[in-house]
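Worked example 3 (structure in, sequence out).
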């Protein structure tokens, strides 16, 4: 069961998820600190071949254009969250609808915030091959 206390990282993480669900790029980018970073997934991937992450507003906005904008819908199906210090880890899956297919990325999704509640780091730990193996048309098992 996810705790709902007003922890600053939980507030920022849920605001990030809400902006993605609302398809609001400007609101999402505005949640990040000036030197914030997105690593989704962590390490080399089709979104980040060098595995360095997307740092700063311009790079984070470009990540949106590459990874979020082409989707039809994204759902955050998190089972629980754990807040410690200025960080939170959500566990569960992100379900993405794109091109008439559904893909589930199961993993751990972390947010670290600064003293002002701005996101310093959004890090997503999920396996590309494992997620791609879940691809199916919506409504199928």
């Amino acid at each position: 069961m996810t705790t709902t206390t007003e922890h600053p990282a939980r507030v920022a993480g849920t605001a990030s998820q809400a902006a993605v669900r609302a398809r609001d790029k400007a609101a999402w980018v505005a949640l990040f600190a000036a030197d914030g970073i997105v690593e989704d997934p962590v390490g080399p991937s089709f979104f980040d071949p060098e595995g360095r992450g997307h740092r700063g507003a311009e790079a984070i906005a470009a990540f949106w254009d590459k990874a979020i904008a082409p989707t039809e819908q994204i759902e955050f199906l998190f089972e629980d969250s754990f807040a410690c210090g200025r960080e939170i880890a959500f566990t569960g899956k992100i379900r993405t609808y794109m091109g008439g297919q559904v893909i589930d990325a199961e993993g751990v999704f972390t947010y670290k915030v600064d003293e002002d509640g701005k996101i310093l780091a959004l890090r997503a730990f999920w396996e590309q091959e494992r997620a791609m193996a879940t691809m199916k048309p919506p409504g199928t098992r």
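Notes: The helical segments are 8-21, 25-30, 57-68, 128-132. The chain is about 25% helix and 40% strand.
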